[in-house]
Amino acid sequence: MSDYTEAGRPPDVATDAGNTQRSKGLAKGRLGLLASVVLGISTIAPVYTLTGALGPTVREVGAHLPAVFIVGFLPMLLVALGYRELNSAEPDSGTSFTWSARAFGPMIGWIGGWGLVVATTIVLSNLAGVAVDFFYLFLGQITGHHELAALADNLLINVVTCCVFIALAVWICCRGIATTMTVQYGLVALQLVVLIGFAFAAFDGVTAPPPLEFDFAWFNPFGVESFSAFAAGLSLSIFIFWGWDTCLTVSEESVGSEEVPGKAATWTVMLILGLYLFTAIATLQFAGISESGLGLNNPRIQENVFAHLAGPVMGPLAILMSIAVLASTAASLQSTFVAPARTLLAMGYYGAVPQKFASVCPRSQTPRYATICAGLAAGLFYVTMRTLSENVLADTITALGMMICFYYSLTAFACVWYFRDSLFDSLRHFIMRGLCPLVGGVILSVIFVRTAIDSASPDFGSGSHVGGLGLVFVIAAIISVLGIGLMMLSRMRAPAYFLGATLRQQATLPLQE
Question: What does the longest C-alpha to C-alpha distance in the chain come to?
């Protein structure tokens, strides 16, 4: 990719599908609708997210899992529709960063980009951590030496293995989007087949009477005992849907970049909802929500639901669940690198971070430098958090939910403001560009504020606290302060972006049709 000149001029303009769009050097036309949906499902990692989030969500809302999943799905769908409109007007790998900057100015855009990069870094560290646990569990199962599973509890072995997994994922991503997708198809298919098989086996294995009778009240969100518990459960629910926006970060590498990524994001969210509801109902009926035995409120079960339920549900085929979790985490570990790498690429392209991040490998046409930096950040975060405490890693999931709510809602509001002059041109514009993203953004903002307030309590989450403040609140506060500090540093080093110069120079499309 061409560099900026000393006068700050942007690279040459390229034409794509009749629209003026400056190329960042990424591969063009490599991903169709199916590939984009597979990439979105891979990033969400349904097996990984459910094994880690089912227990904590039941802890907050009890048997109302389906209700929380549905309510968590609604803002995701509404925001995804806003993303779809923004992408149709301006396909850009920077997504939240670029669109927020266009709508609200450079500083808000920078913070939006920071929120996305931090959220993906936290996810990457947790993905790698779960992969380590199931890797050694799998080794114990396949060799018959179950003591091998305990190796995951050894701090040194754990962090070294984790860093190796991260390095492998970075290496695959750096080889190009085609290599990435070749691996993704097999890994995603494997985890979906095993997860659906687990759900059918759970239904078939329900005893008479079942630990928990099916009740349509599970779908009633008003049955949750308090709004705080509902907000906490919803924050976790939103976490399990997170990742569909990866479909938009590869818009510049997609066929039909103005339409296909948005359709893929919408289809991804809807498919995941059906899969989650099916699995949640099966698991509730099979295990129940008691605090003993296989109950989902058993603290031991909550740590890793599928690790403890796979044996009772699937019998000798339980090893398939270990393989599925490994496949899920491996696939997501690889695909999740796509979002932060391309966001950093866009931030470097527009001058919001050092220009080195805008470099693209001419052979693989991938942002290799940004990908490696994302890998280093994920590894450092995991090693730091894992060394401090195992509870810290658990609480980062809740902190992650807050970050997701923040940058999704920011982008939803950006959609409304971005298209403000065309909202009343037609009923479709009003609904798709105004009403849907506005409602989705408001819902996520309420969840963010409620969780931020509640997380200050020392009893929130795992109960870990620092100086009387809940650990989740402390993690979120540190992330926010660090982000503002880095933004101020970037502003001093490269003021052109913060003055709006690079955004104006690189404007591609008008704000309305």
Answer: 76
Q: Is residue 362 part of a domain?
A: yes
Q: How far apart are CA 58 and CA 73, in angstroms?
A: 17
Tell me which residue has tokens 């009772």.
312
21, β-bridge pairs: 14
Show pLDDT as tens, one digit a residue, over the chain (513 residues): 333 333 333 333 333 333 444 578 888 888 889 999 999 999 898 988 888 788 888 888 888 889 989 988 898 899 999 999 999 988 888 899 999 999 999 999 999 999 889 888 888 887 787 788 878 888 887 888 878 888 888 889 988 998 999 999 899 888 888 777 888 898 899 999 999 999 999 998 887 777 888 889 999 888 888 877 787 777 777 778 888 888 988 888 888 888 889 899 999 999 999 999 999 999 999 988 888 888 888 888 877 788 889 889 998 888 888 888 888 888 888 888 888 999 999 999 999 999 899 898 888 888 999 999 999 998 898 888 788 766 666 667 677 778 888 899 999 999 999 999 999 999 999 999 999 999 999 999 988 888 888 888 877 766 666 777 877 788 888 888 998 999 999 899 888 899 888 877 655 433 333
Q: Report the CATH number that the domain containing residue 92 is assigned in CATH.
A: 1.20.1740.10
Specify whether the CB–CB gap between 168 and 379 falls below 8 A: no
Query: What is the domain count for the chain?
Result: 1
Return d(Cα 15, Cα 32) in angstroms, integer: 19
Neighbours of 476 (CB within 10 A): 26
Domain that holds residue 60: 33-505
Structural domain contains residue 511: no
DSSP 43-72: HH-HHHHHHHHHHHHHHHHTT-HHHHHHHH
Other C-beta atoms lying within 10 Å of the C-beta of residue 3:
9
CA angle 279, 280, 283 (to 5 degrees): 85
**Rg of the chain, C-alpha, whole Å:** 22
The answer as to whether 7 is a domain residue is no
| Dihedral sign of CA atoms 367, 324, 403, 70 in order | positive
Is 20 among the domain residues?
A: no
Beta carbons within 8 Å of 380's beta carbon, 6+ residues apart: none
